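Subject: for your reference before the review

Hello V.,

The reviewers asked for a structural picture of the protein, and I figured it would be easier to keep everything in one thread rather than splitting it across files. Below is the amino acid sequence we used in the manuscript, unchanged from the supplementary table.
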Amino acid sequence: MAASHLGCSGPAQGAELVDRLEHRKSLGSSSRVHCSHSSFSSSFRAGGHSRRLRLSSPGLVRHRRRKLVSASKNSSSNSSPSMDSASSNPSSDVKLVNGANGAVLEDVPHVTDWLPDLPTYANPLKHNPAYVAVKQYFVDEDAMVAKDIVVTLKTPGEGIHFRRAGPREQIYFKADEVRACIVTCGGLCPGLNTVIREIVCGLWTQYGVRDILGIEAGYKGFYSRNTRPLNPKVVNDIHKRGGTILGTSRGGSDINKIVSSIVDRGINQVYIIGGDGTQKGVNAIYEEIRKRGVKVAVAGIPKTIDNDIAVIDKSFGFDSAVEEAQRAIDAAHTEAESAENGVGLVKLMGRYTGYIAMYATLASRDVDCCLIPEVPFYLEGKGGLYSFVEKRLRENGHLVLVVAEGAGQELMAQSFKETGGLDASGNKLLMDVGQWLCSKLKDHFTEKKEIINLKYIDPTYMIRAIRSNASDNVYCTLLAHSAIHGAMAGYTGFTVGPVNNRHAYIPIHRVTEKQRHVNITDRMWARLLSSTNQPDFLKYDKVMDAKRKKEAASTPAESPPASIGTVGGEHTATPENGIPRRVGLSGVTENLG
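And here is what came back from the structure prediction:
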């Protein structure tokens, strides 16, 4: 197939150009992307997990940065920035460098984009005794990490690459002029304290920075709360605790107030830990700092316990969450196995994606059915959940069911004729699928005059609040150090994370433009189906269409929907007659009216 050529005339076309490149790649094309600056010569590390590309001249990358700044400054408006506006138009920051064999570097911003004449300094790690013996400790300016490592012989080297993370030989900040701050935002997650500790200790011991502040209570802490000084003694053992010593909150992102506070306090390095909403804030803060023309490096460390951040291999806290979730599953299995017709129901985190539920199920091997948001399920009929539960109870005498919190939302919305709103971070408020399933299963077996003993376990807040395990502690250290090295080297407006097992500096729009979901056509989901032998629910659309038609034809006047609540810790339901009833764990229904 003949190679096609795509033009790249400026940063405003960057996002579109990347999409076109990836589309061509998905079609198996050998298309090339041509920009006006630089070229790569590609070399491959034999047997390794990453492809490494070398620029013909490292100086060309900095030249590329300076060429882009004028277009960006001319296109910026005088209006006050917000997280939504900054994140919805990422193309202004897309910096592409063309390479050999169709490779493209998608670079991150640098402080020299708007301050081109900044001096550089020798990295103090060069004289650090802990790193003297390390062979080639400094990362070359032209070292890249491939976004996709599975290639064909016809298209080696094609696709998007990111700048490899790590210490640079030349840095843009002197230790005695650095004033750094750290802030945590959003929900709790195992490992938050570890990231805080390693940023503080890394700045202190590796670069000699002595002025480090903690911003309390999330983004709003920049302008409504006091700061607290941080040093290695203060953070020495915080990795042994859950939560965050700085406190956290959702929302509160008044960008002008935040940046004014940063400038007024003399802060020139900002480390922000949070999920996709927080990372949009990172981008908005960077944009406003750039517009004001001040020398401040802004680094994001992505955090989400659900593991739904795109591009990076996984998010910190995920391994700890899966490990703790497995303990809840073990408890549910013990309860179910010890009772007649025992059913253990465990609700796990997973607002939009079912990674925790899927991995905990695979690790446990005691789960009979795993329900996740990516796979809509239905209750009645052939291939439905009811028939599967009945069959498994007849065969084994007990059953363990795992459900992610975001599963079944459409089914519940149809049942209750309502949908949830949004929280302060813009996340959809979810209905409680765990209690709903408890009620539905008990009602079903009560109608069949069969007894089940159902035990419901919701370990959500227990999992969020635990300390990180050994694997996450190591991972958090690498994330923190990568962010430090990037900020000291002058990179800004970026987020860090492993891409194909190599840490990289990633443009923020890459991790905020879409969420990662479980690929149900992938082998991992097939392994789960093979382990549980659960229904695949492929007839969901057909079954739900038939149900809607039946309901529409039955009667024009709809009955008021049932509502679910709790009485004394047990599940209650209010049917059409308005008399509440308690559904006990033995399966007996008791009127409360």
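For the response letter, the relevant points are probably these. The longest helix spans residues 318-337. The CA atoms of residues 42 and 53 lie 5 Å apart.

Happy to draft the paragraph if you're swamped.

O.
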